[in-house]
């Protein structure tokens, strides 16, 4: 292990240069224009895996973007770790809010990253975290210190719903046999507060349309007499959450798992700094469901948010118009044991029922996913806990997060294997936002921690 760690220190500059080269490829899965770039990023990754020493690495086509699969089998008697991550990234818009090009990675210091951070789309979510695993693997291979079999499975469609990865798992169950799925696509509380994610929220995502008169109208000639779809949509959305921060859709909370007072007390012992949280976001106050703390509101409680809303005239100056339609995209984050399909149905039924007779409403479901909670009393978790304790000098805190990785529930359902969510980002790294970045401290800490995971996991399983 000393050799592995020494190798990492010796090659750390090259690791960073390689990551920056990869981040320059705009692998935006949502944008069809970038399909060749997504493929290029996949081939780049497969090439790096080959050079790191896998037995084989393939770029497997799907109906959408390809899956990069690679493996190194050392001994069938040893445990097998399946590493999952995604090499696709979110669109960078709004571009004008970036201080440097989203695909021109640069290193800059920040308050939370005094050693510097790489600024680029995908730096933290998830290319930077994916690359830690490739480099940790290289360091173990170069020093004859790989104690487990490894399978790598990287997709290019996580940010657009992982539709083809689900099918790929169904079709490749035997090939994907493993003892644990190891994922770095989540965050720690702070660089001196290591954390292991033990829960992800589910997701129901819908698009709604409110349709009024058959054409845009003069807002003076018709205003006051004909329903304005934008006004109506705002009313309808406002009614979805009451004054206590409760979602008003009938049946919405029926299946929500009530967490015991004991567990809630335990969760709230995590060193979360609400003052720093507000300062980072430049807000004077937090807001949410009555009776719950900020940490609870983003982990054990569901939420509903408008992601985008449009309609009518939004150009320069003023145009007096009563628009004929209005649109919004709405996401609902779900907790155990809510079911995304059921919630989508409840939403559609309720949203349609509250529409006044002056408009028509259309609800279109998008992709969704189920929530997960992972156990802490397993060798899979314990290996991660020990590995982080080794490199951070502190026992990591198990914590549920508010984000979603829908494929994790599917892994459990289809492959029958549980995941360990050992991520190294910070919530303040601006993933999905302008100026996304990933700390160099976090990148290197990840590379250093991963080989310990393999070592401790192999020990615990033998
Ligand atoms: N890595 C994130 C999820 C995440 C973020 C987990 C922060 C924990 C902390 C992932 O890439 C993501 O963005 N997921 C989407 C869901 C997907 C269906 C688009 C999300 O949570 O919005
Ligand atoms: Mn991600
Ligand atoms: Mn993401």
Unreliable spans are: none
Query: H/E series, N to C?
Result: HHEEEEEHEHEEEEHHHHEEHEEHEHEEEH
CATH class term of the largest domain: Alpha Beta
Oligomer: single chain
CATH architecture of the largest domain: 3-Layer(aba) Sandwich
Provide the fold topology.
Elements: H1 2-23, H2 35-52, E1 56-60, E2 67-72, E3 80-86, E4 106-108, E5 117-119, H3 127-142, E6 149-155, H4 163-171, E7 180-183, E8 187-188, E9 195-200, E10 202-211, H5 229-238, H6 261-267, H7 274-281, H8 294-297, E11 303-311, E12 325-334, H9 340-353, E13 360-365, E14 372-373, H10 379-392, E15 397-400, H11 407-415, E16 419-421, E17 425-426, E18 437-439, H12 440-461
Parallel strand pairs: 3-6, 3-7, 7-16, 8-17, 9-15
Antiparallel strand pairs: 1-2, 2-6, 4-5, 5-18, 9-14, 10-12, 10-13, 11-12
Helix pairs in contact: 1-3, 1-12, 2-3, 3-12, 4-11, 10-12
Bound molecules: ligand BES and manganese (II) ion (MN) (2 copies).
Structure in words:
This protein has 462 residues and is an alpha/beta fold. The chain folds into two domains: 2-200 and 372-461, 3-Layer(aba) Sandwich (Aminopeptidase); 202-256 and 302-369, 2-Layer Sandwich (Alpha-Beta Plaits), CATH 3.30.70.360. Helix content is 33%, strand content 20%. The chain is built from twelve helices and 18 strands. The strands form five sheets. A six-stranded mixed β-sheet has the order 1-2-6-3-7-16, with helices on both faces. Strands 11-12-10-13 form a four-stranded antiparallel β-sheet, with helices on one face. Strands 4-5-18 form a three-stranded antiparallel β-sheet. A hairpin with a 6-residue loop joins strand 1 (56-60) and strand 2 (67-72). Helix 1 packs across helix 12 (440-461) and helix 4 runs parallel beside helix 11. The longest helix is centred in the N-terminal third of the chain and has 22 residues, at 2-23. The two termini are 18 Å apart. The model has no long low-confidence stretch (mean pLDDT 97). The chain binds ligand BES and manganese (II) ion (2 copies).
């Amino acid at each position: 292990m000393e050799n592995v760690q020494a190798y990492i220190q010796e090659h750390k500059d090259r690791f960073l240069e390689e990551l920056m080269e990869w981040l320059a490829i705009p692998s935006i899965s949502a944008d069809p224009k970038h399909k060749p770039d997504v493929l290029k990023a996949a081939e780049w990754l497969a090439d790096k895996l080959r050079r790191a020493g896998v037995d084989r690495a393939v770029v497997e086509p799907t109906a959408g973007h390809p899956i990069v699969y690679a493996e190194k089998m050392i001994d069938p008697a040893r445990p097998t770790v399946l590493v999952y991550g995604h090499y696709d990234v979110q669109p960078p818009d709004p571009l004008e809010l970036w201080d440097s090009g989203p695909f021109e990675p640069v290193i800059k210091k920040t308050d939370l990253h005094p050693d510097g951070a790489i600024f680029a789309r995908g730096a933290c979510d998830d290319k930077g975290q994916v690359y830690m695993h490739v480099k940790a693997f290289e360091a173990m291979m170069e020093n004859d210190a790989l104690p487990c079999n490894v399978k790598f499975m990287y997709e290019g469609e996580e940010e657009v719903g992982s539709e083809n990865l689900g099918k790929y798992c169904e079709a490749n169950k035997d090939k994907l046999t493993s003892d644990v799925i190891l994922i770095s696509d989540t965050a720690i509380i702070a660089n001196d507060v290591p954390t292991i994610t033990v829960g992800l929220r589910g997701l129901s995502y819908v698009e709604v349309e409110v349709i009024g008169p058959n054409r845009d109208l003069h807002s003076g000639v018709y205003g006051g007499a004909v329903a304005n779809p934008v006004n109506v949509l705002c009313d309808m959305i406002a009614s979805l959450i009451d004054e206590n921060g409760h979602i008003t859709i009938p049946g919405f909370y029926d299946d929500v798992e009530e967490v015991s007072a004991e567990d809630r007390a335990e969760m709230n012992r995590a060193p979360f700094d609400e003052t720093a949280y507000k300062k980072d976001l430049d807000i004077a106050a937090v807001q949410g469901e009555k009776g719950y703390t900020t940490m609870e509101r983003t982990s054990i409680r569901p939420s509903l948010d408008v992601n985008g809303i449009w309609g009518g005239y939004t150009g320069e100056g003023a145009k007096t118009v009563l628009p004929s339609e209005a649109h919004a995209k709405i996401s609902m984050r779900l907790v155990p044991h809510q079911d995304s399909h059921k919630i989508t149905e409840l939403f559609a039924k309720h949203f349609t029922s509250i529409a006044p007779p002056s408009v028509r409403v259309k609800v279109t479901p998008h992709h969704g996913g189920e929530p997960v909670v992972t156990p802490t009393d397993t060798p899979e978790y314990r290996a991660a806990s020990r590995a982080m304790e080794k490199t951070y000098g502190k026992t990591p805190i198990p914590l549920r997060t508010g984000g979603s990785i829908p494929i994790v529930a599917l892994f459990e359902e289809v492959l029958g294997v549980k995941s360990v969510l050992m991520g190294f980002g910070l919530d303040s790294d601006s993933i999905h936002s302008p100026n996304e970045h990933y700390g160099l401290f976090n990148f290197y800490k990840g590379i250093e921690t991963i080989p310990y995971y393999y070592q401790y996991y192999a020990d615990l399983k033998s």
